[in-house]
Design brief:
This is Glutathione S-transferase N-terminal domain-containing protein. It holds the Pfam family GST_N_4. This protein has 242 residues and is an alpha+beta fold. The chain has nine helices and six strands; from the N terminus they run βββαβββαααααααα. The chain has two domains: 71 residues, 3-Layer(aba) Sandwich (Glutaredoxin), CATH 3.40.30.10; 151 residues, Glutathione S-transferase Yfyf (Class Pi), Chain A, domain 2. Bound molecules: glutathione (GSH).
Amino acid sequence: MFILKQTTVEFDGINASPFCAKVELFLRYHQIPFKIEAALPMHGPYKKIPFAVYQGETLGDSELILQRLINDYAIDEGLTSLQQSQGYAWQMALEQHLYWLMVYCRWHPEASWKILEQAFFSGLKWPARPFIAKQSRKLVLKNLYSQGVGRFSLKQVLQAAEQCFVALEAHLSKNTFICGDTFSRFDLFAYAIVKNIDNHDMPTPLASIIEGFSQLKLYQARVEQALKNKAGSVHSLTSLSA
Ligand SMILES: N[C@@H](CCC(=O)N[C@@H](CS)C(=O)NCC(=O)O)C(=O)O
């Protein structure tokens, strides 16, 4: 049995970590039996979530996990090399750039942090809770600074995110999915991050910006339909086994 180790925090029906959601949705879409176990980044091989226990091995990194499953289950998404390169370029923009802008908007502004703190740390006991929450926030802000985005003002971060939404909106107004007409693994992170941003449970300053991008709403609906068609309901993401 494939064991997916991830946070079990969800916002509006999607895993709070778009990397975790990507793996979980891949497993569901390809109907690979799996079980979810709650885990913290510190327990993973790369000190990040998601990670997985599979065939006696511990695998880390969402992309490496997907590559392993694609190999083992001989999954062919039918993408041309041009589609693959398109998918890769979008993957890098969303995972390596937009993701960090989202992290900034969750952990930096006080109003967002208050909601996030409640969602991530409310299960902890006093007096440890405020200490662990504060330390975690300090670490994330340090990581944001190292990554580069943490050196920006909120206004600059919002401008950068808007630029990304404009590009994605233009792409998705002409393409059904990230790689054109073919739904693929590249849609999983794209969907997960758009839904995490366009989210009522975890509103950040990005939520009011993404609101104006109608193609991104339509895209979410298309991906949900594709997932439902193949894997059944996407609304059972909390269930502990597939
Ligand atoms: N490249 C990794 C990125 C995973 C990632 O950044 N996970 C975040 C949660 S969304 C994490 O574990 N952060 C904890 C940390 O960096 O300390 C992947 O694809 O799995």
